[in-house]
Amino acid sequence: MSEKWHAFWQNSTAKFWLRSALYFVILLILIYLYSYSGINNSGFIYNEF
């Protein structure tokens, strides 16, 4: 079984797709955290002056 996993990890196509999926998940998490922080929801600081 470990030989199959080792052969799978040595495949360059598998490495490319797994890394792409990992980067995509990280990007989605960062977008979610950016939208959750409410940066765009704040009003203009000088509205009350």
Helices and strands, in N-to-C order? HH
Q: Rounded to an integer, what's the Rg over CA atoms?
A: 21 Å
When the domains are counted, the total is 1
Mean pLDDT value: 80
Per DSSP, the total helix count is 2
- How far apart the termini lie comes to 70 Å
Main sheet, how many strands, which sense, barrel? none
Shape by Cα distribution: rod-shaped
Judged by helices, strands and strand pairing, the structural class is: mainly alpha
Query: How many β-strand runs?
Result: 0
Low-confidence residue ranges: none
Strand content: under 5%
Characterise the protein shown here.
It is a single chain. With 49 residues, the chain is mainly α. The protein has one domain (2-38). It has 2 helices and no strands. The protein has helices spanning 2-10, 12-36. It is rod-shaped, with a radius of gyration of 21 Å. 0% of the residues are buried. The model has no long low-confidence stretch (mean pLDDT 80).
